[in-house]
Amino acid sequence: MRDPLSVLTDAFTSFLFGKVETTRLPVRTSTGQAQAVYLPTAAPGLGDSGVIIGREVYSGKGYIYDPFQLYGQQLPAPHWLVLGESGNGKSALEKTYVLRQLRFRDRQVVVLDAQGEDGVGEWNLIAQELGITPIRLDPMAALDMGIRLNPLDPAITTTGQLALLRTIIEVAMGHGLDERSGFALKVAHAYVNETIVDRQPVLTDIVEQLRHPEPESAEAMNVAIDDVRAWGLDVALVLDRLVDGDLRGMFDGPTTVGIDLDAPLIVFDLSHIDRNSIAMPILMAIVGVWLEHTWIRPDRKKRIFLVEEAWHIINSPFVAQLFQRLLKFGRRLGLSFVAVVHHLSDVVDGAAAREAAAILKMASTRTIYAQKADEARATGRVLGLPRWAVEIIPTLTPGIAVWDVNGNVQVVKHLITETERPLVFTDRAMTESSADLADDALRAAELEAEERAAAFVEHHLGDSESTVA
């Protein structure tokens, strides 16, 4: 209950000045003037420790991202998926990210470089700048004592060798091995490993054993020797492609001596392989398993495995299963897997939809560059992006992407330094004058992107003139 003095004071004031409480009339003003009333706010960032990517478009804050720093706090897994159509900045982001990560002494990066021009891979300039020779897998060069990777390298466990052989065969055949073919392969592999001790076993030994199986292998299963030979015939024909077919020379001999697995950057140049042929997923499988057993070690280093054209992995059930196992090393041995894909629909609607979903689930970080509206909606459904992010994806200009880091969604503009620029934009067909024009076009695109972002923010805040009570 109010005290008598307050009641008397209010009554006297009302008598002199009229009603104390008045209703304020609405005031029409612009959003520019209203910002003094409604102060700008920005979502929290990812912290200030790690690698700088660029700046947030809406707040202007610096955007810093590092899966090794965020793991366990904001990230359940250190793996990263990069999506977007060609020409929007995926390649520039990957290259600057790797260059900036390598400034940390405990970082090591492997790149599967599936693109290139002028006879070399896209990462060739960066490798040269760092004094590193790419591991160029080329069937023609391999015939002239080029680089070889041996699927039967003793550094790979016998279990890993058999799993790799099965994957190679299943990818080439387009279906899984039946029990009889699998048995023929298993006994041939076991016999080769038991009897060849004075050198590295090679694929030729497996093919020869499949063509001429030992009687003991038939007797162990109480079957005829001719049956075992028939069961292994298709397997031998597939492996013969790596021995005496279009992929010969790269995998049918001992692993090349001198491959430096301790270098800060290891580049596998696959640019000489037809990206649309069955050879690419076979290569992905062999390189992935070979690295699993020879590169990943419990030495407290933080490792990044970046795969260009990663749909060759995610779209093949057999290769995807191998890489699922590789991704599980991320938590135990500090491995961050980076998959670069043009269209998510290429994999989620493909033959390996179940395996693709499992790999996508492991990627807690997703970066999406410009896509067409239909593709953006499909991507949003699969990745669970908020509606506003899906709507803005088709309007993004080169260098700007939607980043989703375990639910923390931001629009980020990637920044490139002048030192990085000649290493990142590696179109050697450019002349000096056209390079200048390209720089001007990039700056114009950046200005246009800022204007689009401002227009988007204004649209979602309301009309240009708002009513403020």
TrEMBL record:
<dbReference type="Pfam" id="PF12846">
    <property type="entry name" value="AAA_10"/>
</dbReference>
<keyword id="KW-0547">Nucleotide-binding</keyword>
<keyword id="KW-0067">ATP-binding</keyword>
<dbReference type="InterPro" id="IPR027417">
    <property type="entry name" value="P-loop_NTPase"/>
</dbReference>
<dbReference type="GO" id="GO:0005524">
    <property type="term" value="F:ATP binding"/>
</dbReference>
<dbReference type="InterPro" id="IPR051162">
    <property type="entry name" value="T4SS_component"/>
</dbReference>
<protein>
    <submittedName>
        <fullName>ATP-binding protein</fullName>
    </submittedName>
</protein>
